[in-house]
Structures are given as structure tokens and as C-alpha cells.
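Protein modeling request. Please complete all fields; requests missing the sequence field cannot be processed.
Requester role: graduate student
Desired output: 3D structure, C-alpha cell encoding
Chains: 1
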Amino acid sequence: MTEEQHHDLTLTDDPAANRRALEQLLVSRTGGTLRLPAGTFPLDRGVTLGPGWTLTGAAHGDGPVTTWLTSSSSAGEPIVHVLGSQVTVQDIGFLPPPCAPGEHGGDRGTAVTVGSYLYPAETEWIEDIQIRRVQIERRADRAANCVAVMGAVRDVTISDVAIVGGCTGIAVHWGAVGDGVDSIVGPSYHPHHLDIHDLRVSDAFEGFYLSSVHDVSVDRVHLTEVEIGFRLLPGDNTDRFHSSGDNPVGARIRITDAHVAWNGPLYGVRIAGWGRSEIDHSVRVLEYRDVVVRDCTLVPLPLATTRTGDPLRPRSPIVVEQAAGVLLDAICVDLRAAATGEASTGSPSAPRGGTATGSGHRTG
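Delivered output (364 residues):
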């Protein structure tokens, strides 16, 4: 990459001017590195990253990020929407605005969304995506996800991400061609070749979920004060519209070294093989292949919500439903940690950067 492709952007406390400065550069160039200064900078709405861009904040060594982006938009778009390949987002903190995108709006209202849930026609794959050294805070807001990876997305690495608040920390979900979830015509697109590691989520509804994916690795995750730790799901239509027979959905998935301290009324972990279609309400069961959940510690905390659980099912550390083909290995339920308060340690909360002066859903 040549020196001319590195761009240092000056931002202010003007949300519209900041967004225009970002968009003007992103639209007028065909990729490069866009460096943002230290500080907390507002936008009046989100921006889109096309192919070949690296969006990076100021250098911060081993400490917390010093570049933060906020948004005042009520339209529900992500602060950063990745719609091109070979894109990196790094060394930035995000403060998404309150948003209530609804049950099937998991790609809306996020800090970062890669891909899309619904497509008007067949689409090309987005690939070679890096999200690293990112912090997200959305305290007192559990209606929208924080990071979404959806639809025709592959070859993604998400590493060293710290999240406080929100609905689901990282939501990984299939996508498809159709006007709505009840009118999907296919084909469907299933994220794969995804590597998530060194993830920390606290004070959120859920740490992460994987819905109708294959070839995914999740390692070294610390989920504390969450109502649900994580879910492995088949998707509403499982593999009904999936056309790539050589890469079956639900194959080659690894979840390892997860610490889950959960305070919800249902379960810490759910692994399900059945899905109910929104199209015709039929129930299908996905056959998992070569799926392992290993070396996980589950810590049940006192309930932190007034909502009640399922009266027909007691509160459980882990629930497995019609999920043959999933190996559970070295799963520990630690009651001692809950009793001594150890489960609440390791929170990803960290102080934010400077001021704008530059001084320093859910979809299941």
C-alpha cells in the first residue's frame, strides 16, 4: 500500500460535518487506511465501509482505546456497516445510540454490522474481514446487538473485543434472499470460516450466538453478568435453502475455553438442533457434524431480573435440544465461584477516551 493511501482525518464536535468528512473520503477513494484521532466524536448517522478499507483509531498501546465514535441517529443503521471485502476495523470504541430494532432486526442498531440479513437478489460474498481491539458500550440498553455478522460473510476474524451492555455481544446469523423472514425464497447464506477469540462481554442480555453456520471457532471468551452466556442454533429454516452440499450447515464448529457467569432465569448455554420456519411454521432438525463444546466453566449467579423462566423447565446451566452430533467435554458448573463473588471479576469496562476536541433484536 502506498503512502498516498493513508489518510489522517480531523474530526470535531459537529456530527454532520464528521460524517460528511468520513463519507467523502470513503466514496472518493478505492480503499486505504483511514486513521482517526484520539477523542470522542459524534456522527449524525452511520457510515458504510466498502472494499479495501482499514478504519483505525489512535494508537493506545496496551491500554484502553482512545478513539470513540458515537451516533445520534434514530434510524437504526449501524455506526459502521461493512459491505465490502478486505476490510479492517481496529482500535476504536463505539457508543451506539438507543435502538429497538425488533425481533428480526439483529443487523440494525449495532456498533458494527458485517453483511446483511435479507437480500433483494442473489449477492456476492464479503470476505477477509478483521475486527480487533474494539470496545463497545451501550449501558442500560439491551434491545439491540453490538456486533452482527450476517448473511454472505466468510473468512472473518474478531479478536480482543470488549463489550458492556446491549442485547447480544456478537450475533452471527444466516441471511437469505427475500422480502421478509416469512417470504424467503433463497438461496440462503451461512457465515463460515469465522474465528472469534479473546472476547469479553458483561452486563448484556447474551454473550454471543451462532445461528446456522459452519466452520467456526470461538476460543477464550469471558462472559459475566449476562442473562444467557451463548447459544448454538440451527436457524429458523435450518439448511432448507442452503445449496452448497460440500459445506453442510452445522459442521466443524468449536467453542472452547469459555467462562460464563449468568444471572438469567433460563439457562447459561443452549444448544438446539430444531428450528421453526417463519414461512410455513414447519419444524426441521439440523444434523450437527463434528461440533465440540469443550473446557467451559458455567457459574450460576443470583437472578438479576424480575422476569420468570419457563415454568415447565427449571433454571439450568446448559440445555441441549435435539442436537445429536455435538460433543460436550470438560464442562464445569462452579457453584463456589458464585458464592465467593469471583464470577464478577474480569469486567471489560474501561474508561473512555478524550473529548471531541481531539485531545487525547435479536434475530435468532
